[in-house]
Amino acid sequence: MGVGTRLLQDTVVALQALSLYGVSTYAKSGAASKVSLQSGGDFQQDFHVGPSNRLLLQHVPLPQVPGEYSIEVSGKGCVYLQTSLRYNVQPKQESAPFLLHVHTSPETCEDSKAHKVFDIGINVSYTGERRVSNMVIIDVKMLSGFIPVKSSVRKVGARVNCLSEDICPFHFITGTTFSFSFIFKTSCKCLWLTRGL
């Protein structure tokens, strides 16, 4: 028996179950129900379910949660009641396992040369609970119109025994600060440069 046949049989069984449910809960025209929801306080909400709106979802937010509520149903027919609780637990702030400091040289772009060539220095150290970390990826994004100088990238790779310019396996970061820098230069002139994010 293939997967397609099994899925088809499951669909048939589900349709049969839905049909039986519809037969047993179907109310002839004219049958109507009233659902009253109330709390110990002054909150009360009435829902009317009849032939014209029996497929309509009616809902109301509860004014106080947690709280005690009572439901009273009268009339003829079938109604389906459901409560839905939504909540958001903010994750507790944990201390970051890494310390990262990025700076440029020169620090400002007042000199016209800094618009064409500048250095980016990166200092990183591991501050987590373990002795070392081997789960480190430092992803340096390029500013629009700039590219890294290949020789400066190769110098960093030689320090950490990289296989290529972007693959450096088996390198561990400890509590000692690891510092490196790249040289960036303009590849094409861009007007209206904005601050990098």
Automatic annotation (TrEMBL):
Any single Pfam family the record assigns to this protein: A2M_recep
Listed InterPro entries: A-macroglobulin_rcpt-bd, A-macroglobulin_rcpt-bd_sf, A2M/Complement_sys
Source species, domain of life: Eukaryota
GO CC entries: extracellular region
Residues of the Alpha-macroglobulin receptor-binding domain: 132-156
Name of the protein in question: Alpha-macroglobulin receptor-binding domain-containing protein
